[in-house]
Amino acid sequence: MFLQGKTALVTGSTSGIGLAIARTLASAGANVMLNGFGDAASIEATRAEIAGGGTKVGYDGADLTDAEAVERLVRRTADEIGPVDILVNNAGIQHVAPVDAFPVDKWNLVIALNLSAAFHTIRLTLPAMKEKGWGRIINTASAHSLVASPNKSAYVAAKHGIAGLTKTVALEVAQAGITANCISPGYVWTPLVENQIPDTMRTRGLTREQVMNDVLLAAQPTKRFVSVDQVAGLALFLCRDEAAAITGANLSMDGGWTAQ
User: Fold this and answer.
1) 184 beta partners
2) How far apart are CA 201 and CA 208, in angstroms?
3) Distance separating alpha carbons of residues 36 and 152, to the nearest angstrom
4) pLDDT in tens, 4-40
5) Mean pLDDT of 45-54
6) Cα–Cα distance between 11 and 117 in angstroms, integer?
7) Torsional class of 32: left (φ above 0), alpha (ψ -120 to 50), beta (otherwise)
8) Catalytic residue (one of 59, 155, 187, 257)
9) Which of 32, 96, 115, 135 is most buried when burial is the number of CB atoms within 10 A of its CB?
10) Structural domains of the chain in order of their starting residue, each with its CATH number
11) Do 235 and 21 contact (CB within 8 A), yes or no?
12) In the chain, what is the straight-line distance between the N-terminal and C-terminal CA atoms, in Å?
């Protein structure tokens, strides 16, 4: 329980990678503020389940594309659970279209949620971390923070931006006892990915195995999905004292995708 007494704010944590990270941090003793969208009853059940481990667990459905809502989220976390020690910027959204046909509103949404929200959470949580002389900022980036794919201009731009933001923050707080790193997964096995498979099978006339190996995992040499628990395990390690010298890093977890 090495995180006992620490407070973690994990955005986009009502499902997928964020939820796995929130569970893992709580299992190590951290108090956690969940954030994200979804069915209210399901979210409450998840919150109560995690809190059953003996830590404080809150939930705030703040829309992170709204800077004022982010300010309220950080303030509420501090008031109800404690000033943020561990910030995990995980919330994100995707839209796929050629750049010359990319809807402007979708561009603005992707940038606001995937990049600008992280700027706001970082700027608002850093003062308390500096005061304590300890903090961990962990940003969920993507293999697309290092390489590009067609038709994903907003997502790739935002994830490259997250990598640059992470490096800049790491340099600014290098002597303050705070680290800032990003984790860049490849394709991660989540319900969102799993639910894409039947539609792709029908539209392309492929088997399930073909969709997984030749479409979704085409870029990952291991031909294996990254698991949410693997990402959460790395996030947890970054909170340990043994990881105090790791800062400004972009840590690939992509089955060899960006090694090519």
Assistant:
1) 252
2) 6
3) 23
4) 999 999 999 999 999 999 999 999 999 999 999 999 9
5) 98
6) 9
7) beta
8) 155
9) 32
10) 7-187+226-251 (3.40.50.720), 189-224 (no CATH)
11) yes
12) 39
Distance (Å, whole) CA 23 – CA 46: 10
* Annotated catalytic residue 155: yes
pLDDT in tens, 168-205: 999 999 999 999 999 999 999 988 788 889 988 998 99
Query: In a 3-state reduction of DSSP, which class is residue 160?
Result: helix
- Tell me the C-alpha distance between 78 and 102, whole Å: 38
Cα four-point dihedral sign 20, 248, 119, 220: negative
Residue 212, both tokens = 């997984």
Q: What pLDDT sits at residue 225?
A: 96
Q: Give per-residue pLDDT as tens, 152-165.
A: 999 999 999 999 99
Tokens of 230: 């693997």
Contact 11, 90 (CB under 8 A): yes
Annotate 5-18 with DSSP letters as a single string: T-EEEETT-SSHHH
Amino acid 11: pLDDT = 98
Query: Scanning the structure block, which residue is given the tokens 């002597």?
Result: 175
Helix 40-51 to helix 16-27 angle, to the nearest 10 degrees?
A: 20
Beta strands in the chain (DSSP E): 7-10, 31-35, 57-60, 86-89, 135-140, 178-185, 188-189, 226-227, 250-253
Going by C-alpha positions, the residue among 255, 250, 238 that lies closest to residue 188 is 255
Compute the radius of gyration of the chain from its Cα atoms: 18
pTM of the model: 0.97
